[in-house]
From TrEMBL:
One of its GO terms (cellular component) is cytosol. This is D-hydantoinase/dihydropyrimidinase. CDD domains: D-HYD (cd01314). Residues 47-413 form the Amidohydrolase-related domain.
Length: 485
């Protein structure tokens, strides 16, 4: 049975225009005026946009002695209700290793997800086994590897390990991702603040100033450039990190920056809240910054020196956050956002003139699909693409409230924020997964894994250029060499 989305204005990353969209099965069959289908989806007065892609989530992730409370079922339904049709989640291997961890993530996602998904794999050390497993993981459709420069004693890798892993990424045609904060420095600052009796959630922010992020961002870029591999910096939160990215891009280095909607809209005053729970619920890494940093991130999105907006959705309940009462270093790090990312970015980005509607589509979907190498299957409204489509209603506002959210946790860091636009309908490969006019339910098992091929063109360009400019020994005439020394 075909469907036609009628009466809306299509907003793509490159242009806006009025047309209907015909869907047959999983994909877009045609785009144009006056199309007919078996079922009509009303887009009158609305925009029609490619489904959002959240490139950074942590669903059911074991972390800091507990596990994130957002399940694949609740998380992907929450995402769909907010206009997101694909999440890319981080597989974090423990002692079981990469392959067994990937099996676990795949099994959970396949059983529970309402929308499509992909995976990034974390590299948390270095060994022959990891070297080998990275090849296997790439063969299973995972083309991105995450490196934590923070979380000392847990997930952190050092420069040697990062260099080895980046080199392997280059060989495989994979893209390294980096959590860029100087983990050694943070560990020292944490100890210092605890010793001084500074043990509340605010000390989390004191121990992670923007400089530690800027330094690590620069270091990650230098290592990637030395290896000859592109690099993607996750949760870019500060002007210092943005500056390192800008500087590198000016030199022709391929580096991408990912601000989060939380860092764009929430600031460090949250940690000064007299209510401990309120402050702890907002503990994440990097922490919220001040207005100067927020302005820098918005400017980067408009200017093209930052590229995508994610959520790093890593949702713990208030109860879990209380594990850090009396010791801020034990508060599980992470905040939520995947349900509200599009509404917030539209309201505080597009409605305020910081982004055009087309830039909004680029940073929430198209750029992400391109960088993660699933474009134009995802991130595009063109015939043949997956019918991951949102009918986006710019007049259907709401107030964000934990009491009405789909997310499984008991609070929302954006509680009380007014948003002016929401998803009227969300379609995932042609199936309605969110209908704001009725009570939609999760559709566990509907979502599918989207394998992502390796990056051939950029790898070839980088290795060709590296070879051309490689330092070479000077071939000297023996007559010009000193004799008898
Ligand atoms: N960001 C955060 O605080 N928690 C999730 C893990 C990570 O991405 O660092
Ligand atoms: Zn991180
Ligand atoms: Zn994360």
């Amino acid at each position: 049975m075909s469907k036609v989305i009628k009466g809306g204005t299509i907003v793509a990353a490159d242009r806006s225009y009025e047309a209907d969209i015909l869907i047959e099965g999983d994909t877009i069959a045609a785009i144009g005026p006056g199309l007919k289908g078996d079922e009509v989806i009303d887009a009158e007065g609305a925009y029609v946009i490619p489904g959002g892609i959240d490139p950074h989530t942590h669903l059911q992730m074991p972390f800091m002695g507990t596990e994130t409370a957002e399940t694949w079922e609740s998380g992907t339904f929450a995402a769909a209700s907010g206009g997101t049709t694909m999440v890319v989640d981080f597989v974090i291997p423990g002692d079981e290793g990469m392959i067994a961890a990937l099996d676990t993530w795949e099994e959970r996602a396949a059983r529970q997800a309402s929308i499509d998904y992909g995976f990034h794999m974390a590299v948390t050390g270095w060994s022959q086994q990891i070297f080998q497993d990275m090849g296997t993981v790439v063969g299973r459709g995972v083309n991105t590897f995450k490196h934590f420069m923070a979380y000392k004693g847990a997930l952190m890798v050092n420069d040697d390990e990062m260099h080895a892993s980046f080199t392997r990424c280059a060989e495989l045609g994979a893209l390294p991702l980096v959590h860029a904060e100087n983990g050694d420095l943070i560990a020292s600052l944490q100890q210092k603040f605890m010793a001084e009796g500074n043990s509340g959630p605010e000390a989390h922010a004191y121990s992670r100033p923007p400089e530690v992020e800027g330094e690590a961002t620069n270091r990650a870029i230098v290592i990637a450039d030395a290896v000859g591999v592109p690099v993607y910096i996750v949760h870019t939160s500060s002007e210092e990190a943005h500056e390192a990215i800008r500087r590198a891009r000016q030199k022709g280095i391929r580096v991408w920056g990912e601000p989060l909607v939380q860092h764009l809209l929430l600031d460090e005053s949250e940690y000064a809240n007299p209510n401990w729970d309120h402050a702890a619920q907002r503990v994440m890494s990097p922490p919220f910054r001040d207005k100067k940093h927020q302005d820098s991130l918005w400017a980067g999105l408009a200017a093209g020196s930052l590229h995508v907006v994610a959520t790093d959705h890593c949702a713990f309940t208030t109860e879990q956050k209380r594990m850090g009462m009396g010791d801020f270093t034990k508060i599980p790090n992470g905040t939520g956002g995947l349900e509200d990312r599009l509404s917030l970015l539209w309201t505080y980005g597009v409605e305020k003139g910081r982004l055009t509607p087309n830039e909004f589509v680029a940073v929430t979907s198209t750029n992400i699909a391109q960088i993660l190498n699933v474009y134009p299957r995802k991130g595009a409204l063109i015939p043949g693409a997956d019918a991951d489509i949102v009918v986006w209603d710019p007049k259907a506002g709401k107030t964000i409230k934990a009491a009405t959210q789909k997310s499984a946790i008991d609070y929302n860091v954006f509680e009380g924020f007014e948003v002016s636009a929401t998803a009227r309908y969300t379609l995932s490969r042609g199936a309605l997964v969110w209908d704001s006019t009725s009570q939609s339910q999760p559709q566990p098992g509907r979502g599918a894994h989207v394998g992502r091929p390796t990056y051939q063109a950029v790898g070839r360009a980088l290795s060709t250029w590296k070879e051309l400019v490689a330092p070479r020994p000077v071939l000297r005439d023996p007559k010009m060499m000193p004799i008898g020394v």
